[in-house]
Amino acid sequence: MEEKHKSSIESWTLLALINRDLDDQDYNNALLLSERLYAIDNDNSHFKYVYAKSLFSISDYTACYTIIKSDQSIPCLNLFAKCCLELGLIEESQDKQRTLWQEGTQAIQTALRSNALPKEVYWGDELASVTNRQSMPSEASLCNLLGDLYVKLDNVTAASKYYYKCLKINPYKISAYINLCDIAADSNIIADKLKNEIFVDFDVSKTNLSRSPHTYLPVLPSKDAPGITFLPEISPSNVVTNSSSVPAIKYYQNISVKQLRALIKYSPSISDDDDNDENKRFAYIRFQLAKDALIKTVSGDIEQMTAAEAYKNKHGLRKKAPAGIEHKLEVQLSDMDEQTDYHLDKEIIESIDKDHPPRVVTEEHEDFTFDIPTKKRIKVSSSENSAVGSFFLPQSDSHQVNQQTNAEIIKGMNKVLDLLSIIVSGYVYQSLYQCGRAALELQKLDDRQYNTARVLCILGKSYYDASDYKTAVPFFRQAFMIAPWFCDGVPEYSTCLCYLEMEKELNLLAYQMRGNKSHIYEYYITAANWSKCAINSNEAAEWFQKAIKYDPNRAYAYALLGYEENEKNNFLGAKQMFAKSIGANKRSYIAWCGMALAYHNMEEFIQAKTLLYEAARLHPRHPVLLAKLAEVLYELEEYEEAEKYIDRSLAIRADPANQELKENIDRWTARNR
């Protein structure tokens, strides 16, 4: 495989770990590692192929298709054609099916015409596959796949031609023989005759048992190749506060990594203080033991309300709800004026670009891609570098292992480990709702690793969970712009846009998600949020119901539908949805808070307080949740307790409505003193 890019020791270390995970069928971990490999050099065909292969292994065919669509290397062409075949199988439109399968046939035809494809079968390579990995697909495998695609296109003649060619090259391709027999009635192929032509003993004098002289691998590690670098650790005290607003970047306009890093300065004052006092009050064990009982109580209440509603309907005490009319749900792209507020956006972007990202002030660096000097660098000669590279070759006994080589290999392994530890730490802080710590931890990454969809989505979700939707949007937007196949953050992204009433961007997101058949759940939620924001009808609820029906094991759609029912004063329906959301994920603070809101709207404040305590235990830093708990405590005349929570909410984020509640609480507290 001809490769113009250079490879580093870190990249080869990642390659080894990814391939091991693929062999172990640990596909999720292989995907996490391949994202890091792809970030090192996203133009490298082999790195692109490994990333796409990991996505294909978890059946994310849309992402795989998108990443390698324009790559002309034979492995990528082969994998691209496989994606076309799979996507066609799940596509509803026959025209789109045919287009996908035609794209696949064109890709395989291109691969078969390539001079890089071996025209001779080296059976030494084929039989050595027990221990050696083959990076180049065989001509027989390409012909077999091409036959499958032609069958889907109803071109039986072409299909039989390539199945037959596949078998002539490699008679062990039993699937090609079976498929050829299946279409024999339409292809004038006689199965018995075919069997006699294909399954013929090998002749020792005519069979090439040697190994191929070509090595279809990325180039060996080089010291000057792009690898993994880190930035200095940042203390929270060094972060500069800036009162400017977040840039309203429209229609997926490019934003630099420097601008994204600067957004941390515009975040609210999110408290990441020690939780000892909170944990003392709401002891984990106490609430874990009480949680099942609380869920049982809520479930019993829902059953009683359901029975009461059924009784009223049966005896004519309430008019029966009209049968629901199923709408033809469809997302259309609205007209957009891309020049709207462009100059204002440009001014905001330029104002941010002038600021320095929040870094420890030492010396200026233009690109932030430097190594942190920790240990004395080891000088490696060209012969020693060759020894490092040969470490990864199958012929392991052909090179001399020495202490210098071992040190370089260990160094590369440790760099990969350090990279993963930063990302894992950022994810941990995000899952603990410590937005500030997550942002500072991920600032250590260099720009190549920082400007990746997974890292940006971690930051976006951190700000989303902090109820700072304005700051979350640019991170989600950038993630989707650079990797539209990566849809983990799309549900939260669309919810942020809905809350901010950013109808045009939400419409664009929903429209682009419409064709992603690998992320239908995410598309339904995006379409629901768009309907809620733009159409303001019952369609949003119908979209949420479609998401639930598609994947009833995920909690988010239940919760969003619960809030929809709450707004319609359908408290029974809201409780039912929140109960199902909690059943899908007992740690969903959104569902617990929603359930409490339903009880609050029914003026059942004691039950609402109990539910909000659990929500606050799960997420002790959400300003809206804390304010709602203070409001309920205020209604119950527990003013001292209410004061604690409203103070904490305002310390995280100032809000006029919460400030008014604070003043009311202070007045009652002053009277009682």
UniProtKB/TrEMBL annotation:
Keywords: TPR repeat. PROSITE patterns: TPR. GO terms for biological process: anaphase-promoting complex-dependent catabolic process; cell division; metaphase/anaphase transition of mitotic cell cycle; protein ubiquitination. InterPro entries: TPR-like_helical_dom_sf, TPR_rpt. One of its GO terms (cellular component) is anaphase-promoting complex. Transmembrane segments: none annotated. TPR repeats lie at residues 140-173, 453-486. PANTHER family: CELL DIVISION CYCLE 16,23,27, CELL DIVISION CYCLE PROTEIN 27 HOMOLOG. Belongs to the APC3/CDC27 family. This is TPR-like protein. It comes from Mucor saturninus.
